[in-house]
């Protein structure tokens, strides 16, 4: 969503009134956010259109004035028409040349800016791939299913896309990536614990943060029973390079484990809100929790660089606090408290996974 502040930044950037440091930061934001890049491109096109129209109107008035003067000159000297043309050209050659130059510069400036913004967007898209898994085998949508069938209309075959999410509070709040639930009409979450007990709940999208690419969901199903506590803790400190990390995700219908390490303290194009990690990821891994060896949450998997092997990215876990703090109090259906105490730091990894498995969900998106 383009806020008033971002709109003002766009106008300042397009008008070339933005300070150099702020301009560099803003261009980096455009590389990371294709929606922002598109908004800047559209504003640039609109401004150029207005400028071109204004120049054309001014130029038309000039030519109308020239034409009127030319006609008067022709009336006064009917037998020396050639002289009138030469006199007109001699008197107004500079003005006409400037007007023509302005028109040419305007056209080429518009073409250059459009191509430049497209190149920024293309660079951002080519170096970063979201990990939402599209369901290419979908046969039916919600609007195509008859209500007379008397069944759950959101069966596994009907979802349009899927990814991963995980519970962050005992009362059913779940975090995933914003791009996962963007455009969703309905969202369901599914998980299977280590005892192979399957859980499926309807969830409501509470809040989405476009800049952080995070979304907060809340289980809204009456069959859900709140948990006693969350077994893991949220790590708000910077995780060391080389630190061992692992993730649980749903790139397929079954939960999948993956491990690796923190490769860099910045994400794609130097994004300080993310880590680069060496964990193998695939479509469906978006929104997966990233944990350290002690079972502390250190990040949320969000994407990868398709042009570089082993270059995946995770949003740093401290930004969950930012997400929660920006949510209006009246938007929360119940109080939300992020986990602060780790109850599994002494466990072996297989035992940690057993504790976490039922808290990691396959997020399925349905569209009408």
TrEMBL record:
Metal-binding in keyword set: no
Pfam family, one: Trypsin_2
Phylogenetic lineage: Bacteria, Pseudomonadati, Bacteroidota, Cytophagia, Cytophagales
GO BP terms in the entry: proteolysis
Transmembrane segment boundaries: 96-117
SUPFAM superfamilies in the record: Trypsin-like serine proteases
UniProt name for this protein: Serine protease
Molecular function as annotated in GO: serine-type endopeptidase activity
Key words of the record: Hydrolase, Membrane, Protease, Transmembrane, Transmembrane helix
Originating organism: Xanthocytophaga agilis
Keyword Zinc attached: no
């Amino acid at each position: 969503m383009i806020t008033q502040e971002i709109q003002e930044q766009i106008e300042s950037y397009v008008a070339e009134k933005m300070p150099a440091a702020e301009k560099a930061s803003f261009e980096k934001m455009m590389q990371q956010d294709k929606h922002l890049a598109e908004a800047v491109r559209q504003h640039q096109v609109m401004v150029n259109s207005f400028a071109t129209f204004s120049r054309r109107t001014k130029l038309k008035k000039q030519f109308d004035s020239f034409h009127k003067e030319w006609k008067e000159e022709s009336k006064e000297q009917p037998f020396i028409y050639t002289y009138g043309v030469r006199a007109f050209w001699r008197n107004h050659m500079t003005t006409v040349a400037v007007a023509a130059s302005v028109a040419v510069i305007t056209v080429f400036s518009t073409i250059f800016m459009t191509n430049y913004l497209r190149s920024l967007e293309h660079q951002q898209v080519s170096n970063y791939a979201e990990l939402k898994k599209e369901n290419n085998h979908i046969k039916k949508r919600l609007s195509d299913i008859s209500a007379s069938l008397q069944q759950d209309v959101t069966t596994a075959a009907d979802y349009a896309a899927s990814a991963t999410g995980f519970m962050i509070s005992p009362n059913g709040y779940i975090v995933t990536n914003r791009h996962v639930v963007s455009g969703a009409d309905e969202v369901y979450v599914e998980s299977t614990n280590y005892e192979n007990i399957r859980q499926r709940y309807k969830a409501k999208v509470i809040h989405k943060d476009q800049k952080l690419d995070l979304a907060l969901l809340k289980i809204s199903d009456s069959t859900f029973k709140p948990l006693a506590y969350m077994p893991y803790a949220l790590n708000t400190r910077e995780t060391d390079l080389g630190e061992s990390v692992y993730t649980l995700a749903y790139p397929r219908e079954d939960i999948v484990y993956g491990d690796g390490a923190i490769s860099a303290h910045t994400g794609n194009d130097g994004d300080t809100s993310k880590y680069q990690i060496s964990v193998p990821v695939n479509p469906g891994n978006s929104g997966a929790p990233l944990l350290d060896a002690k079972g502390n949450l250190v990040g949320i998997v969000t994407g990868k660089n398709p042009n570089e092997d082993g270059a995946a990215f995770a949003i740093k876990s401290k930004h969950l606090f930012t997400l929660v703090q920006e949510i209006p109090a009246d938007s929360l259906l119940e109080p939300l408290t992020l986990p602060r105490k780790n109850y599994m730091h002494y466990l072996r990894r297989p035992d940690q996974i057993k504790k976490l498995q039922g808290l990691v969900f396959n997020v399925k998106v349905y569209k009408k």
